[in-house]
Amino acid sequence: MLLEAQKRGVPFAWVGMDCFYGEQPWLLDEIANKGMVYIADIPFDTQVWLEKPRIEIPEKKGIVGRNPKRQKIISGEPQPIKVHEVAKRLDPSRYARVFLRETERKELWSMVACLRVFPVRDQLPGVETWLIIRKDEGENITKYQLSNAPADTSTERLGQMSCSRFWIERALEDGKGEAGLADYQVRGWTGWHHHMVMTILAMLFILRMVVKWGEKAEMISVQDIKEVLEVILPRNEITEDEILTIILQKQRARLSARKSHHRRNGFRV
Predict the structure, then answer these.
(1) How far apart (Å, rounded) are the C-alpha atoms in residues 70 and 72?
(2) Using CB atoms within 10 A as the burial measure, which of 1, 89, 210, 245 is most buried?
(3) Which of these three, 116, 131, 163, is where a domain ends?
(4) Number of continuous H segments (helices) and E segments (strands) in the chain
(5) DSSP state of 236
């Protein structure tokens, strides 16, 4: 799928993935080899080296058998360490407070540490990559990710990349909630494909509306567009000014509720 998107010229900056894919080293390496950037969730017990250990092809022992060809870590070199142990040992000064995104209830800030590591690949050090350690404020969970983003990528950029999968998940939620993505009762693949095509076309139309009206109403949402369509479709005529008025009324109410929530919870307004 990724290669097909790349072949068709679909523009994307990076590939985000959850732990299931993040713990598939072959997949990460293949994506990197194809010139794509990834950021992947990884389990807390993923092992990495903080410094690249020296490797060698060991000398043959005895006169029987084949000559060694496989490289190994030189005796005495440090062992790899689990990423959750890295987090425990990391100096607090290595963390930076990064704004990730606005949520329905508050601003999402996180303490993010980014360091260069060498992940384990077949018991040997792999290519140097980023290890991102993220602790979202208000949550007692530490998240770990690997990324092959360029070495000069800023902490702020990596932090924003680390939570970007939210928008994909949100798109699926919007598709289910606003366009009926999950509301199908079919018995075969043909019927399912028909339903998916119509739903995705509806979402594409709504997205284009969001982009168009977002130039005049910055906080516009998918739900706003659906509600506006419910108002204007039964009418024979409606002007753009009338549509904009409907949208701005909804946004003023939403902004007022958000500011009120932020004040109650002590966040910056």
Answers:
(1) 7
(2) 210
(3) 163
(4) 9, 11
(5) S
DSSP state of 143: E
Q: Kindly write down the DSSP assignment for every residue of 75-141, as one continuous string.
A: TTSPPPEEHHHHHHHS-GGG-EEEEEEE-SSSEEEEEEEEEEEEEEETTEE---EEEEEEEETT---
State whether 48 and 181 are in the same domain: no
Number of residues written out for the chain = 269
Report pLDDT for 262.
Answer: 62
26 and 126 both lie in a single domain:
yes
Residue 61 lies in a domain: no
59 close to 65: Cβ distance less than 8 angstroms: no
* Nearest residue to 49 via CA among 82, 22, 23: 82
Of the candidates 136, 163, 190, which is a domain's last residue?
163
Tell me the average pLDDT across 63-90.
Answer: 87
Residues 11, 134 share a domain: yes
State whether 178 and 249 are in the same domain.
yes
DSSP strand pairing (15-17 vs 38-41): parallel
Summary mean pLDDT of the chain: 86
Tokens of 129: 């990559």
62 in a structural domain: no
Which tens digits make up the pLDDT trace of 159-213? 999 988 888 888 888 888 888 888 888 889 999 999 999 999 988 888 888 888 8
Q: Report helix, strand or coil for 48.
A: strand
Residues of the domain holding 193: 170-264
The reported pLDDT for the residue numbered 248 is 78
